[in-house]
Every structure is written in structure tokens, then in C-alpha cells.
Design goal:
This protein is α+β, with helices and mostly antiparallel strands. The protein contains 24 helices and 19 strands.
């Protein structure tokens, strides 16, 4: 309800108010008026429409109010002249609610009016009457406007009206009642329905067409459609008013961006360090020179403790692979102990059977007899983050510091490539950093990152990540692994069949055998080995994880590590791809053409006359007797021709 309503006479009265007015036809005491009300049944009386003529009083003290229609005619006539009209103000809640929904310009106008009223009240306290104070305040505003070169739109009568608006209103609620009654534009130009639909269709597309381009479309169609179009701003206002902002983002920027319109969930930090750790990979925005002389952007597999933000371990490699994940996990297990859970994404390097074998994962199902990975062996709970959602991994916050601070380290000047092709610096690819320099700078930067004070995360209280981690570790030390456990869990698992004669097993052309292995029945087994050195002895297990025996290498293969073998396998795949491309360029006939050519040949053969032979041709759908008679006649004719030819010979 708006606080600005027309003046109207009061319609509801209490018994005390009626007694005080001393109206004709009514008693002049409160007791007397109450007796009249009880005798005539004012509390239960209803008018012709069925509306009650009494209501509970909402002011302090309560009671009952009665409508003036219950009073005698003489009392109503005097009441209309004796009581002046009053302003029916909105209730406090409605006024405050309306004020909160106003735009800022109207709120500023309400504050300006309140300032003028307060100035008038100050002048009154200084000894001026209200009328003179209002006149003086209006003159001040006009003089100030003249000095500024603007026109002042105010008069004493306007200020009197503002005082009337806040009569009986508490001081802290005045601003809500002083807000202008008008809410801005009330009429909207009409847009033809088809023009609006075409404009909306063009605007809500993935190509993100501009407002001007959409308007030009409907403007070009207007003459043929006989449309009368309003100005372009009308279309823009209607788009904003009718279509939710989240829906505009979804239609113009896609579903992926629409997911960001929903606020992310705040996650509570773990209770203690090493309860949950986060693993993820990061590709740097600069180039390095590897030991073999190759050049490229390095990839780092990093592990961070979520409870403290402590950086635990990292491994650098040319590409993201399960080997780097395995080594980073090994460093964490060796230096800090066993975590309760590991949070990671659904990358193939994380879901590889060497890492997550034997546990349910997003991309792969658990195959019967699948060898256990590191997480299953050690009892580490695997938590897979939501795919393609960086906010699900707290380590991304640390990666932001990697990209903003460390990637632009002075030692990497000239090697920085930029985040994408649009952010290439002027000295792009003028230099590449040796990998040894990168590892040294990385270790120094991480050490400073761990000791950085002023952390504002939950539970940090301005302390560094190292301080929070050490405090938690001292209160609750994590479980430590023995050397045998650490070496066992860092071995790679691979199911292999036994040779049907010797019982030997092989890995990448490396053969392993022992007398104990030769005595075992031939069956599939699981080998655990060091992928970085295939010359070492392997451990042999059955599919249930029971240890069987050890087996030594009997013949050295061509490769000393799985990474080299994988590189050769990649060359083989590249060769097959080139072979497939060459095959696609071959010009060959379609086999349907060959079939058509054969069919045409058969038709030509059928058109040639059939030579006479003594082969009896089948006669289908002919009675047995008819076929026998025809065969006998045909045989006699052929016999006569044969005898005639024999006699005609010289």
C-alpha cells in the first residue's frame, strides 16, 4: 500500500472517542456509549453486503472500533463537520517494504527531503516558527541552486506537504514515507507480436548477436509486414524485463556457463591434516629444455593437504601420465605418511589401473580379476571430483598462484608463452629454461609459499600453511609406511598369462622365470614390477592377491623402462595413422560397380543361343508323366541326329 493516499474522513471510532466528541443522540460518557452499543448489538451488526460494522482495535490497549454507520443520523451529520479529514498512512511494514524496492534515485530524493525537514526542525529549535522556518529553508535551497547554476524546484507549500507525510511517524521511519509516490515509467510502447518473437529468437542464440543487429533484422522486415516499431531501447528494456538473466546466459553462452549461475557450495575443511589430500595436474605457461634436448611446456602433478593448504609433493613431466601420479603419491607417502582419502578428477592418468585398480571409478568399471592399484592396496579412499568443474578441487586455488606469480618469475623471462594464443607476450618463445633451473626455482618458490603468513582461509587465523600443518600433525600423527610397504605399493601391477610349456611370463619382450614359477600350474597371474627398471626381479601373485613366488629376468629386452617402450609404441601408432591416411587416398572402384558389371555380363550370356547338349535340363512344375514323355521324345530326336551325323562322315 502506498503511503501517499488522498485525504478522507475517519470512519472507525472507539467508545472513548465517541464519548469525547459529545455527539447528539449519544451519551456523553464512556459507560453510556457502551450501554447503547450493547443494547443495539453493534458488535454483531452487519450491513447489507454482509460486512461487519465492528473490528478489533490494532493500537495499544486493544478494544473494539465501530463504524460510523451505526451512529444516529444527527451524530453522523455533526461528525462530518466536527472531525477534520485525516491522512490514512500506510502501515509501517508496507512503507518500509516499498522503500526497499525503489530504485536508488528515488531513495536519494527521499533522503534529500528528510534533510530539508531536519533543517526546518533545527531552525524551529533556534526560535523560529514553523512557517518562518520553512520559508527560510526554501530560500536557502533556492540561493544555493542559483550559485550552482541550476533551477530549484521547491516551494514552502511543498515542504508543508512533506511534513504532512511524516506526521505521527517515528524519526527513523521518516525516509520510507518521504519517498516519491511515482515509480518511474508506467507506459510501455507496444511491439508487434511477430516482431518481438523474431527479435527474441535472434537475440537468444549462441552467436551472441548484439541489440543493434537484432533490431536491424526486424526493421528490415517491418515494411513487408506493415509493422510499426518503437525505438531500439524499448526492445532492450523488454528483453531485460521479461527474460531472466540466468536464461539469457544459458541461451547465449551455453549450458556450461549456465552452471555457474548457481552459487557454489561451501565445503567444510577436514578436521585434521592428511585426512583428505587433493591431487591434480597443471601445465605451465612457459617452455623448458628437457634432459634429452627436447623443448616444451612442462606438466606438474601436485598434491596438497586440504585441511591446512600445505603443499606436499610434486613431479614434473613432459605430459600428464600415471607415472607422474604414481611418483607424486610415492613422495607423499614417504615424506608425510598415509592419507585417509584422495580427491582427484576423472582424468585417465588418475583412473589408470596402476593407480585406482580394483575400485569403482567414473570412466572404467571394475573388471573381475583386475589387479589392485596403489589406492586399493593401501586402503586410501578415492574421491572423484565432478568432471569439468574446477571449483570442486581446492588445489586450483594454488594453481592460480602458479599461473599468476611463479610462471612470470624473472628467471623465466623470454620463456613465458601466455595462457592462450591471445595472450602471447612480445618476446614469445625467445628462450627456454633448462629443466634443472625450473626445478630449483620451483622448490624455492614452494618453500616461500609454505611459510607465507596472513592466510585468511577457514581455521588459518593469519598463520602460514606450514604452521597449521605442523600443529595438526603433532596433535594427530598420520600412519607411516615401512620400506617394504612403500616399495610394494609403488610397484606396477600387470596381469599376464604363463607360457604353456615353460611357465615363464613376459613384460614388453622381457622374459622372467624361476624354478618355483616353472612348477606352478599354468594359469593367468598378476606381476608386480618396477616400471622404471624392468631388469629387477618381479613378484608373482594370483588374481586374488596371494603371493606365489619371485621371478628373475632371463633375457634382456630392447627397452630399459616403460616410458621408452611407450615412446616406441607411440611411433608405431603414428605409423599406422599415416598408413590409414594413405589408404584413404587410394582411388578404387566401389564394389557395387563390380557387382553391376557382373550382372550385365550375365545378362549378355543369357541372350546368346544355348548349344545343344545331351544334358537333361530340369523341368519344374511339370507332372512326372509329362516330363518323362518330353524327355523320351527329346532323347529320340537327339539319337536320330547323332546317327545321321555318324553316317554322313566320309
Amino acid at each position: 500500500m502506498s503511503p501517499h493516499v488522498p485525504m478522507k474522513a475517519k470512519e472507525w471510532f472507539t467508545v472513548a472517542e465517541l464519548a469525547e466528541l459529545k455527539l447528539p443522540g449519544l451519551a456523553t460518557t464512556r459507560r453510556g456509549v457502551q450501554m447503547v452499543a450493547d443494547r443495539e448489538g453493534w458488535a454483531t451488526y452487519k450491513d447489507v453486503t454482509g460486512a461487519a460494522c465492528s473490528r478489533p482495535r490494532k493500537a495499544r490497549g486493544g478494544g473494539t472500533e465501530y463504524h460510523l454507520s451505526l451512529l444516529p443520523e444527527a451524530a453522523r451529520a455533526k461528525l462530518s463537520t466536527a472531525r477534520p479529514a485525516s491522512v490514512d498512512k500506510a502501515d509501517r511494514e508496507s512503507a518500509l517494504l516499498r522503500y526497499e524496492r525503489l530504485r536508488q534515485s528515488l531513495k536519494d530524493e527521499a533522503l534529500r527531503r528528510l534533510t530539508i525537514i531536519q533543517r526546518v526542525e533545527t531552525l524551529q529549535r533556534d526560535g523560529l516558527t514553523k512557517t518562518k522556518a520553512i520559508d527560510y529553508a526554501a530560500e536557502e535551497i533556492i540561493r544555493e541552486a542559483r550559485v550552482q547554476g541550476v533551477k530549484a524546484s521547491i516551494s514552502p507549500r511543498t515542504i508543508h506537504a512533506w511534513f504532512e507525510l511524516v506526521r505521527g511517524v517515528q524519526a527513523h521511519d521518516r525516509v520510507a514515507y518521504l519517498a516519491p509516490a511515482h515509480g518511474g515509467r508506467t507506459t510501455v510502447a507496444e511491439i508487434p507480436t511477430e516482431a518481438w518473437e523474431r527479435y527474441k529468437t535472434e537475440f537468444l542464440c549462441n552467436e551472441r548477436t548484439s541489440y543493434a543487429q537484432c533490431y536491424r533484422l526486424v526493421k528490415d522486415l517491418a515494411p513487408s509486414k506493415e509493422w510499426i516499431l518503437p525505438c531500439p531501447k524499448t526492445f532492450e528494456r523488454r528483453i531485460v524485463a521479461e527474460i531472466p538473466a540466468s536464461l539469457i546466459i544459458r541461451r547465449r553462452q551455453g549450458v556450461e556457463m549456465a552452471r555457474h549461475t548457481y552459487p557454489h557450495a561451501d565445503r567444510a575443511r577436514p578436521d585434521y591434516p592428511m585426512q583428505v589430500v587433493n591431487l591434480d595436474g597443471h601445465t605451465w605457461d612457459f617452455e623448458v629444455i628437457w634432459e634429452d634436448g627436447s623443448r616444451g611446456r612442462p606438466t606438474t602433478v601436485a598434491i596438497q593437504d586440504i585441511a591446512s593448504g600445505m603443499f606436499l609433493a610434486a613431479r614434473h613431466a613432459p605430459t600428464l601420465s600415471h607415472h607422474a601420479v604414481r611418483l607424486a603419491l610415492g613422495d607423499t607417502l614417504r615424506d608425510y605418511g598415509l592419507p585417509d582419502a584422495l580427491l582427484m578428477d576423472n582424468g585417465s592418468e588418475n583412473q589408470h589401473r596402476f593407480i585406482a585398480g580394483g575400485i569403482p571409478r567414473l570412466r572404467k568399471r571394475v573388471v573381475e580379476g583386475e589387479p589392485w592399484g596403489i589406492l586399493k592396496i593401501l586402503g586410501i579412499k578415492a574421491i572423484f571430483a565432478q568432471p569439468y568443474w574446477g571449483q570442486a578441487k581446492p588445489i586450483e586455488r594454488m594453481f592460480r598462484d602458479f599461473a599468476h606469480d611463479m610462471a612470470k618469475h624473472p628467471a623465466f623471462e623470454g620463456a613465458y608463452t601466455g595462457h592462450n594464443v591471445l595472450n602471447k607476450p612480445e618476446n614469445y618463445r625467445t628462450k627456454a629454461v633448462p629443466i634443472a633451473v625450473f626445478r630449483r626455482v620451483f622448490a624455492e618458490w614452494v618453500a616461500g609459499y609454505q611459510r607465507r603468513q596472513g592466510r585468511r582461509g577457514v581455521g588459518m587465523n593469519g598463520r602460514s600453511a606450514l604452521q597449521v600443518f605442523q600443529e595438526g600433525i603433532n596433535a594427530r600423527p598420520p600412519k607411516r609406511l615401512t620400506e617394504d610397504q612403500l616399495s610394494l605399493c609403488m610397484l606396477t601391477s600387470l596381469p599376464r598369462p604363463m607360457h604353456r610349456v615353460t611357465g615363464e611370463v613376459s613384460i614388453m619382450d622381457h622374459r622372467y622365470w624361476s624354478p618355483e614359477l616353472g612348477d606352478l600350474p599354468r594359469r593367468p597371474v598378476v606381476l608386480r614390477f618396477d616400471p622404471d627398471d624392468l631388469s629387477k626381479t618381479v613378484r608373482v601373485y594370483d588374481r586374488r592377491g596371494n603371493f606365489l613366488c619371485m621371478a628373475e629376468r632371463t633375457e634382456e629386452g630392447d627397452f630399459e623402462s616403460m616410458e621408452k617402450a611407450a615412446r616406441i609404441a607411440k611411433l608405431k601408432r603414428d605409423y599406422l595413422r599415416q598408413q590409414a591416411k594413405a589408404d584413404a587416398k587410394l582411388t578404387i572402384y566401389d564394389r557395387a560397380d563390380n557387382a553391376a558389371a557382373l550382372e550385365a555380363l550375365n545378362r549378355r550370356a543369357e541372350a546368346l543361343p544355348t548349344p545343344d547338349t545331351n544334358v537333361v535340363s530340369p523341368a519344374f512344375k511339370v507332372s512326372r508323366r509329362a516330363s518323362q514323355a518330353a524327355a523320351a521324345i527329346n532323347f529320340e530326336e537327339q539319337q536320330d541326329r547323332a546317327i545321321a551325323q555318324f553316317r554322313s562322315r566320309p
